[in-house]
Amino acid sequence: MTPTPRTPQQRDRRFSRIRRLTQGLLLGSGVLSGLLVTYIASGAKPYTAVPVTAPSSSNGATATTPATTPTTSPTRTPNTTPTTPTTPTTPTTSSGPTKTVAPPTTVYTPPTTAPVTTTTVCHTSPSGTVTCH
User: Fold this and answer.
1) Which is higher by pLDDT, 118 or 92?
2) How far apart are CA 75 and CA 113, in angstroms?
3) How many Å apart are CA 55 and CA 65, to the nearest integer?
4) Are 101 and 61 in contact (CB under 8 A)?
5) 89 touches 108 (CB < 8 A)
6) pLDDT reported for residue 46
7) Would you say 101 and 63 are in contact if contact means Cβ atoms under 8 Å apart?
8) Which of 19, 67, 74, 101 would you call most buried, defined as having the most Cβ atoms within 10 angstroms of its Cβ?
9) Rounded Cα gap, residues 3 and 89, in angstroms
10) How far is 14 from 6, CA to CA, in rounded Å?
């Protein structure tokens, strides 16, 4: 018992059904992934609060800035002018000399550009033609 052979029209109808199913799956997965990316991106936070701790010096004195201050800093601007350090004094409990603490200073120096040098290479073919690159 062999099945009856299909006509070309029946075969074309079957292929078109499979093609529509494949296109629907592809289009649906693309729309679903786009919606998922949009949902995840809408929940993202643009800035994060970062706690900043004041550095302590090695000689036992502390700096005069508060211990912890939350800040939000989206960009960093370079400091192109050198800052002059201030020297706060912290009195000690003993009758000895006072300790001075200078806060650390950082000066931004932009990178320098290196000069570009090129070399010329010349080739001579057997016919006498000179080609330089």
Assistant:
1) 118
2) 24
3) 9
4) yes
5) no
6) 67
7) yes
8) 101
9) 102
10) 10
pLDDT at 66: 47
**Strand-pair category, 89-90 with 130-132:** unpaired
DSSP string, 56-118: B-TTS-B-SS-SEEEE--S------SPPPPP--EE--SSSSPPEE-PPP-----PPPPPPP--
Question: Residue 90's pLDDT is what?
Answer: 55
Q: Of 66, 73, 67, which Cα lies nearest the Cα of 50? A: 73
Q: 16 — phi, psi (to 5°)?
A: -65, -35
Which residue has better confidence, 128 or 9?
Answer: 9
Query: What is d(CA 122, CA 131) in angstroms, rounded to the nearest whole number?
Result: 5
Q: Which residue has the tokens 């010349």?
A: 122
How many C-beta atoms lie closer than 10 Å to residue 62's C-beta? 13
